[in-house]
Amino acid sequence: MNMKPDSLVRWTRDNAADLYGIRNWGHGYFDISERGEVEVRPLGNGSELAISIMDVLSGLKQRGQSLPVLLRFADILSSRIEQLYGAFNAAISELGYQGVYRGVYPIKVNQQKQVVAEIMEFGRKHHHGLEAGSKAELMAAIAYVDDPEALVVCNGYKDEEFIDLALYARKIGIQTVLVIEMSSELPIILARAARMGVRPCLGVRVKLSSRAGGHWDGSGGDRSMFGVQPHQVIDIIDRLAAENMLDCLQMLHYHLGSQVPNIRNIRGALREACRYYVAMAREGAAMGMINIGGGLAVDYDGSHTNFASSRNYTDAEYATDVVEEIMTMTREAGLPPPTIVNESGRATVAYHSILIFNVLEASRFEPKSVSDKLSEQHHKALHTLRDIRNTLNTKNLQEFYHDAVDCREEIRGLFQHGQITLRERAIGECLFWDIMCRIAAESRQGKYIPEELAGMENSLADLYYCNFSVFQSLPDSWAIDQLFPVMPIHRLLEMPTRKAILSDITCDSDGKIDKFIDLHDVKSTLPVHELDDDDDYYLGVFLVGAYQETLGDLHNLMGDTNVLHIRIGKDGQFEFAHEIAGDTVADVLSVVEYDPRDMLGRIRTTAERAVREGRITPTERREIMDAYETGMRGYTYFES
Fold first, then answer.
1. Distance (Å, rounded) from C-alpha 307 to C-alpha 25?
2. Is residue 10 situated within a structural domain?
3. Looking at the domain assignment, is residue 223 inside a domain?
4. Are 310 and 401 contained in the same domain?
5. How would residue 563 be classed by pLDDT, with cut points 50, 70 and 90?
6. What is the pLDDT of residues 325-359, one digit of tens each?
7. Other C-beta atoms within 10 Å of 411: how many?
């Protein structure tokens, strides 16, 4: 839908920044340059080093790479780790806490090898560790943790093989902590440890009554999926005491949720968890570590509120509240200060990844104009619609709306019963939607908009067809209505004059983005620019580093996108540090059990039969086979 620009307003990058909220959700990593392009500041606030995304795309084009592409900025990972440790270390120093902070990264948040390797590289000086919730993740963790002071926290269901791997890792000097999620795991751990001659380091995950609210509320509360009940904690302590192994129980663990937007929920859970910790220490357990799990939220919409896609606290406030609560309660109990462990995955990796794609074309809702000249042969309902259009005024918008809807329903009924022609039906539809567009334009000028007219602009929005798959690259947007910041990455010195929803290239009605961030509400359309026939139009989806890559599926056999890792070199310029080619058609077909060689053979047989039957020439057969083989090697997305 068209938004009429105000000719008296000089559009600036500050206007664009306010419109898209980039300085609210960007956390200092993103801004708009003097050229009107989104720039990335990998080192965060205070750094003048900036990278234009358009310059990155220019480099990609010169190298023959196609969109869509996932950009990963390694230096943002480094910055986020430094900010996290900076916040906790500052709180520890300010409050005079005698314990230390140790972070661990949950591999499930983004399991890509390059991401895990870079986190371990950047976090080594802080003894940053990993969290694993499956055998595959544990095997990755023990391969990439080469710091004897870093923790490997072992969560999730554990069979004998999982437990053996963790105990063997401990034997070779890796600080694995087996967290008991279910009381039935303890006998297996004790038996395997005795067989190997290893004294395990154990933790207990407790079910707190505290809850977080929002999309990810299932991790907390009495009915949470993982963790043990109070009576089971006592059973575990008694069993360990009977085995003379209470010194092995060293960690209290809980997990409130993946994204906890309200600091009050965090504080409430901390108080309850500290009571568990103190009680377990008084029962004779060695203790020494409190693992507060994940939950440090990302402010996706920039509203700084307790909305599910936001958070009402800063990193510093989060760290201060955690340290203060633990210090106060353990000091009152006369216990040594425990090591504070947390599993911040989302807050570590979300910012470092951006999905970039081009817009292929737009479908605009602009009804064809209809002449006022209707003959006597045209049905009276068409004359009525024409009169509504010509007499519409601001005072009676709602009345005209109702009359137009009634007329359209009458015309549709007449067509279904064969009483008017297709041409008359088409005239009626054009008149109706012309009226709707005029009502929408007029309603924008009024102080009060009736509820049934308020959403009209959204129904008249443009549809921008974009070269990506929601299901592959943004599954949370489709599955749980997760909001991500979306905006054009260029032309930001021009006022956007259209409103659009975004459709992907899958043939699925759910393959779209029609909810967008806003400081005060959730918007149903995105302000965008007119498409230029001569130049591509690029959009970016930001803060997609957490979960989106590993949750994506092969809907319509759209595979992984191209991936580009970007790092700042010694000369201060950005480098293409690592490139990963996106899936080919053959790749995704193989995943769903097709054999590309067999398929080529089948097409070859069919084409040869067509030659024998005289349908095609041998030359045409070669062209057909070349096209099919080239397609097998091609990108699953639109290629120009």
1. 13
2. no
3. yes
4. no
5. very high
6. 999 999 999 999 999 999 999 999 999 999 999 99
7. 24
